[in-house]
Amino acid sequence: MVLRRECTARQLRLAVELRRLREAAGLSAIEAAGLLGVNRVQISHIESGIAGVSEDRLRRLAAHYSCTDEEFVEALVLMATERHRGWWEDYRGLLPTSFMDLAELEHYSTYRRDVEFMFIPGLLQTEAYASAAFSSRVPELPGDERELRVRHRMRRRAILEGPNSLPYEAVIHEAALRIRVGDRPTSRAQLARVLELSEADHISVRVIPFDLDGFGGTWSPMMLAGGKVPKLDTAVRDAPHGTGFIDSEAQLGVFRRLFRTVVDVSLDPSTSRDFIHRTAKEL
Q1: Overall average pLDDT of the 249-267 stretch
Q2: Digit-coded pLDDT (tens) for 77-93
């Protein structure tokens, strides 16, 4: 069994789901090892993500764990067997690991949903806007790393382009539309880009205006990425120490409800486009 030196977030998610299945079945790692005819260490390696698992072993484990959700098992098989070296691997060792994990997550997602209060969502950003945003980071990034981050963000936009574009919903607070990240031309060009993208059938952009009564909402940006089945959805939160990937069903339920809340109070897409157009003129 070849052990990995570093696990991606996707590999770790597979490991977590296999451990959850075993624990739900009330089996110990030693008992699971006995069912496969391997030693406990091998189960530990699989459940920590440092070792892969074959399709045959995964299906045997799922059967032993009495998992009857066939769609879920098929999704796990795909996670275990897909061998794809994505473009993001070009940045491994050059940028923080979370950048690769986020791009990989988006590549395999079935939908993306964003809520932003202070910045335009990354997938909608222009190169100039992204550069200005990274330039304002404290402490300041070295110039070469800033450029790498901008290029990486621009390449992530591929999931919104082409024949296999991902369904995408964004809810943006008016503050993010009005805050000048960079100079006035940069901000105006950014809003023009948002308007252009919002015309696509697979992209929905909504705005939360300042004058909305009684909105407490969630004053922290969030992202939801759809898995092959709802059990494999992922929520993402940015924090000063790095990007956090959230996959527990209880917390995912909270994020889904929060997203529905902000959608319900936001302007509809058509009214939002008019709102963004007026805001761009006022900048």
Answers
A1: 93
A2: 999 998 888 999 999 99
